[in-house]
Amino acid sequence: MLCPNCGHDNDTAVLVCDKCKADLYDTLLDKIVTRKLRHKDTAELEQGLFTYRPIVIYVNGSDNPLAIERRPEMIVGRNEGDVTVTVDLSEYDAKDKGVSRRHLQMDATKRPIEIVDLDSYNGTYINGEKLIPERPYTINSGDELRLGRLVGRIYYK
User: Fold this and answer.
1) pTM above 0.90, yes or no
2) Number of domains observed in the structure of the chain
């Protein structure tokens, strides 16, 4: 991961730059593409029910990281037809990369974050290990997350 402060090329799992000691998580939040929040979501965030520190996913081949607010029981996949998901990966060529419409469920209020593959067609992998569908797994900051052939890294504090 390149440090936006000094340009040093750090290992992918670090949250602090090895060269200048900049907090990579905090300094990279400025580059994040966020989804629009509904009024209800905003009201709950203002009440402090969920942390303001989003989960950040860097999808391979994309210049724009994705910020995801911390919520329980989020569905990750593709909005298509009558399926609406909490985290839509369509803009990352998710359909062509084998991401199911309802690929996985994520509980981002737990520490570490917990995910469950929803019996997706092309599978979910953490650091190259295929997940058994319908079974909860924890995912740590800096881990590689693969949904079908869509690969990225997940970061959070």
Assistant:
1) no
2) 2
Task: Say if residue 112 is in the same domain as residue 126.
Answer: yes
pLDDT in tens, 2-36: 787 888 888 876 778 889 988 877 766 655 544 44
- Asked if residue 109 lies in contact with residue 89, where contact means CB atoms within 8 angstroms, the answer is no
User: Could you read off the pLDDT of 133-153 as tens digits, one per residue?
Assistant: 999 999 999 899 999 999 999
Q: Which residues contact 61 (CB under 8 A, 6 or more apart)?
A: none
Considering the domain architecture, whether residues 56 and 113 belong to the same structural domain is answered as: yes
Domain that holds residue 145: 32-155
Q: Specify the pLDDT at position 127.
A: 96
Is residue 26 located within the same domain as residue 49?
no
Residues 71 and 81 grouped into a single domain:
yes
Helix (H, G, I), strand (E, B) or coil at 86: coil
- 62 lies in the same domain as 115: yes
Measured CA distances, 103 to 70, 77, 79, 136 (Å): 18, 5, 11, 13
How far apart, in whole angstroms, are the C-alpha atoms of residue 34 and residue 91?
Answer: 12
